[in-house]
Amino acid sequence: MKPLCLTLILMLPFAGNAGWGPDTKLSTNEVAAVLNENMGQCIAANGTAVHVVWSDMGINSGTVFYKRSPDGGITWGADTRLPGDAGHDCNALLAVSGSNVHVVFIRNAGTPQAASYYKRSTDGGATWGPDVLLGNTKWWPGVAAAGDMVYVSLNTMVDATNSEVFFRRSTDNGKTWEPQQQISNAPGRSEDPAIAAAGDNVYLVWNDNRDTPEDPATHHRKGMAVYYRRSLDKGVTWGPETALTHAPDFTYFPAISLSGSNVDIAYGDRQTEHYDIYHLHSTDYGTTWAPKEQITHSPTDVFYPMVVRDGLNVNLTWSSPAGLMYQHSGNGGASWEPAVVLTSKGSFAFMATAGDVMHLIFRSQRDGHGAIYYKRNPSGN
User: Fold this and answer.
1) Using alpha carbons only, what angle is made at residue 36 by residues 305 and 202, rounded to the nearest 5 degrees?
2) Residue 10 lies in a domain
3) Is residue 9 part of a domain?
4) Is the pLDDT reported for residue 256 higher than 60?
5) Which H helix or E strand runs over 10?
6) What is the average pLDDT across 176-202?
7) pTM of this structure
8) Shortest CA distance to 226 belongs to which of 182, 268, 261, 196?
9) Is 85 within the bounds of a domain?
């Protein structure tokens, strides 16, 4: 019986990984390719078109690249360098609406401090317009799109110890931009905002330490909560700032996904000595929330989750010492299939769905430096 049990254990990860194709290298001639953190998307799918962005920190101190597949990830076009700056560009994210591809990134040169920029293509990524300055920021921007509306989250220091979340919108597919609005209003750190939009609704979720006491000696606050705010009128007005987690939670790196009336948030929480992945779900456009659900029970840190929902299909990925993990629910998150290792040589994954197809990109060091890889599952959604 012992050999049989061993055989079953070895087969389970392989069986759970069924349907996923091989790892395909996307970046070419890279030096130190990186993806962003999980506050937005580095991959988007619209029908059979799949769009990807990444940065290479070894080329001119930072360069943003774009790549496109016209046939659902089967074949890919050439790497396209996007911004026209001599370098110092990084932390790119994108959103797609119809034939419009919207990219945001941060530039660390040419202004008194780091600045967020926007760039768009109106022909599905074939050609690109000029760089548009969105404003000076401390950290990278995020972007979401719905119809002709484009929404950007910004994050900057307003004084030596206080960072805040800001928001800008365009009503004409990124041609012109309205002035920024301040979304968070609190002492301490309000940062790393994740943004999502669908229909008239816009959602922002971020890390916030306003509810933890300040050390009078250092003026630092320990502990983070997931804070949330939504607009039901395309970003004109906003509901209250709402804490979705509370002490003793120590939360970080939230990600958000929308599908119909469902809002899903995945985040890390270090209640013990290491981070685990948690899931929050709302069925009524973010009006009410079910209790948090602990997804992992890991003896080591797991981090940077990404969540993508399409109807009853909920897909989760996260990075771990074992590699890139993936978990799926086919009943809206009521129960979950066993987690599987998609690749032992990958981290910082981003997902997109189109029909039945699951698309996934990740960063790998298997080449001796950072490179961007892609996987697809033609029936995974």
Assistant:
1) 70
2) no
3) no
4) yes
5) helix 2-16
6) 94
7) 0.92
8) 268
9) yes
